[in-house]
Amino acid sequence: MSTVNVKAKAAPTPASAIEAPKTIESAVAVGRETLEHVVKASAEAANKGYEKAVAMTKDNVDAAVKAGANAFKNYEEVLSFGKDNMEAFVRAGTIFAKGWQDAAKTAFAVSQETIEESVAVGKAVLGAKSLKEVVDLQTVFVKNSFDKVVAEGGKISETNMKLAEEALQPINERVNATVSKLIKPLAA
């Protein structure tokens, strides 16, 4: 009796089945990277605007104090002026800190939601019955992720600009008060 040794060969794995998880991972990575870039760019823009405004305001206040030394008639007035300026900077800092805290919460929530959506799509892809279904799921996910990043990025930028304006309001009020005080003696 002779025995024939027959070995079963495994069916080759299609290249598309191997590439699908890589494509999903890269789409998720691109979405996450885009979101992080938008958040980072918005934060940098707001920081630059805030720093520039604070520097300009400080320069204006310093120039006004130098030019208007004669406008202050007594010591109490000078102390009051300095105290009011410090309170304005503290208010501005408080507004700015709270705004950044809110912006960070929003960015975290968006990131968390995006990750949850990525996991859900990943599960759906693993349960897909065909390559077409995988491609369709991935296409919808990438499109929705991109749209969401653009929309949320716009909201974050708008919020950061509003925050910068609100944080600078107390400082602008002090600059206006200083200018008014300096102009008053010159007009007389």
Task: List strands and helices in order, with pairings.
Elements: H1 15-67, H2 75-126, H3 131-187
Structure description:
The protein is an all-alpha fold. It has one domain (16-187). The protein is built from three helices and no strands. The N and C termini lie far apart (126 Å). The mean pLDDT is 77.
Brief description of this entry?
With 188 residues, the chain is mostly helical.
Low-confidence spans = none
Structural class determined from secondary elements:
mainly alpha
Number of helices: 3
The biggest beta sheet is recorded as: none
User: Could you spell the SSE succession in H and E letters?
Assistant: HHH
- Level of helix content? over 70%
Tags for this model:
188 residues, mainly alpha
